[in-house]
Amino acid sequence: MKKIILSIDGMTCSACSNGLEKYLNKQDGILKASVNLVMANTTIEYDEKKLNIVKLEEFIKQAGFKSLGEFKEIKFENKSKKEKIKFIIFTILAIILMYISMGHMLNLPIPNILNPHINSVNYTISLFLLTILFIIYGFDILKNGYKNLIHRTPNMDTLVAIGVVSSFLYSMYSMFKILQGNYSYTMNLYFESAAIVIYFIKLGRYIDGISKDKTKEAIGKLVTITPEKAIIKIDGIEKEVTIDEVKKGDILISKPGEKIAVDGEIILGKAHIDETFITGESKPVSKEIGSKVIAGSMNYDGYLEYKAERIGKESTISEIVKLVVEASNTKVPIAKIADKVSSVFVPAVILIAIITFIVYLLLGNPFNVSLITFVTILVVACPCSLGLATPLAVVVSEGLCASNGILVKKSEILERAQKVNTIVFDKTGTLTYGKLKIAEILNYSNIEDNDLLQIVSSVESKVTHPISKAFKDYVEEKKISLLQVEEFENIAGYGIIGKIENQEIILGNSKMLDRYKIENKYLEDEKKLSEKGNSIIYVVKEKKIIALIGVNDVVRENAKDVIDILNKNKIQTIMLTGDNKETSEKIAKEIGITEVISNVLPKEKANMIKQLKKDNNIVMMCGDGINDSPALANSDIGVSVNSGTDIAMDSSEVILTRNNLNSIINLINISKKTIRNIKQNLFWAFFYNCLMIPIAIGLLKPIGISINPMIASLAMVISSFTVILNASRLRNIKLN
């Protein structure tokens, strides 16, 4: 299976996106396709043995749309000066057209040469010529409308095209009669209706385009974080190149005040780097040889040379953007309501309009009255607001999450998070910083402490667990060299094994001793260390315990506040950890968690999550994204508290790039307000159509309420604008 994101041209409403999505999902070889109206792209999972990108683009063309190729970056439709001038010109022409066509009805001064009562021919021709300009202006709408009708995927453009062409052709017939001398047809001209409908549709899309760009603004800012150029070092010579020219393995240079160009590893120099945009760390972080750097971070005060490791699509920023875009291409379950309605809405409206037209004629109404009612129904029912109701709110929320260090891989999480009633936390690296320090050593051997720590640190250097970091920091501080380790083995949930000078060294917890049937005479010592809040490491040499090492962790400064907020909101909090009972309960008590499940293996963690779900709980699991992956995968929402550089290998559905537990509260708040916003949008969209279609049919004419195509098109724009404004309110959500 392979996944690809393709940019799509020609989508204008939910009927477009739903029609394309339905068509793609019917094709052999496509496992799943999801189309995003706001982002104008589609995510397709397909069998690469059966299909390729050329065939996929052919499917899109067959459905009546155009593929613009593989999605590479978020493009902003910033309105050019030329486009604005064009819109201003047509606004002026629309005013002139309305003045000529309706001025006489309002007793406005009309030149005799254009007065319909004095010079019908000039009046008719002037309206015809102005309308032709609008037909050219909106030709893309008419073309797409009929093209989609032919491909059996009728959309908003189809409604507009049928309405505009119908009124234009009837007006052409009336003009022909007028030119023959039958001036009674002067009042049967509806050129202005066809023209103004196009104008208002263009106005709506102009506003809509600006709004969609704003919804993508937060995501787009990520793209602009990285510099456009970089300095590479070739044979000792510095050369400035574009980012696209940088290759893996190139040596790049960063000087004070410059941004890091690509993800890489420092090979020379030392500096303080600002990584706020990824990690949320307010203070610059000290980096030296061997440290990783992220593209877009700022070098404050040092000269650095670093080797390029992850470039282009592999970079941290590119992965973040891709994750956000893919998430916005998935659908929240509530969106299915709008999808189902939209899939039948356009054909239903066309059918209603045709039936109304026939009934009007059968009831003895004039042909022109019947036709104008037909056109009004088609125009007023355009499902723009319905199509924007869900995706616009989702994209705004995705951008808000991304700009606050919350990466949501599937938009359905935005609906699910508000329902969470149980949150399970891993301890080390999640509720604590994972920055362990060696607190105490109980040495039972005749080996010196420094030599003992050299042995332990050498074996620990083979893993990346937070405990190993404590030993790495120790040997760096003491400048102790590491020993050669052979036959290394990592046993998840238990510990690690390695051979140094042909002697087996085992490091782990008490379960490791049981696994290898090693006698443990030091349970009392373990208990004493644990009571002080230490995590315990047994050191075993040749099947004999030679030491106990206690390492201490630091609780995250906001952990207690977050737990307090969750408890106040009646969300159950549980600590689930592989650490010993005494240490776990001490930390749990400190931050306010009452339920602790300790001494569990990764597999057992997953089973505990399954059990919680069986009790009808909606469970969120927060862990480090690596050791906790089975539990994360089995939870309703897996949240990884991780650094930006680990995004590629993370298996959770939500990634907190800023390592801030407040983000969990923010995610739940955003979820609640997003779903409320979507429900409001859907209500107003449904309410609008339920109200306006009966009026367009003429059911309220007996009490003096009626509309024409021009008013109908304006009402449609106002409806869409209401949804846009409501979705935009999500940007103002106050976060912790």
State the main characteristics.
5 domains, 49% helix, Calcium-transporting ATPase, cytoplasmic transduction domain A, 6-stranded antiparallel sheet, Alpha-Beta Plaits, 736 residues, alpha+beta
Mean pLDDT rating: 83
What percentage of residues falls in helices of 4 or more residues?
A: 40-55%
Look at the helices and sheets and give the structural class: alpha+beta
Instruction: Kindly report the spatial arrangement of strands forming the biggest sheet.
Output: 14-26-25-24-15-22-23
List low-confidence stretches: none
Gist of the model:
With about 725 residues, the chain is α+β, with helices and mostly antiparallel strands. The chain is built from 25 helices and 26 strands.
Description:
The protein is an alpha+beta fold and 736 residues long. The model has no long low-confidence stretch (mean pLDDT 83). Strand 5 and strand 6 form a beta hairpin. The chain has a 7-stranded mixed sheet, sandwiched between helices. It has a 6-stranded antiparallel sheet with strand order 6-5-7-13-8-11, with no helix packed on it. Strands 16-21-20-19-18-17 form a 6-stranded antiparallel sheet. The protein folds into 5 domains: 2-72, Alpha-Beta Plaits (2-Layer Sandwich); 81-217 and 325-394 and 680-730, no CATH class; 228-314, Calcium-transporting ATPase, cytoplasmic transduction domain A (Distorted Sandwich); 409-426 and 557-662, Rossmann fold; 437-552, Calcium-transporting ATPase, cytoplasmic domain N (3-Layer(aba) Sandwich). The protein contains 25 helices and 26 strands. Helix 3 (81-102) packs antiparallel against helix 4 (120-137). Helix content is 49%, strand content 19%.
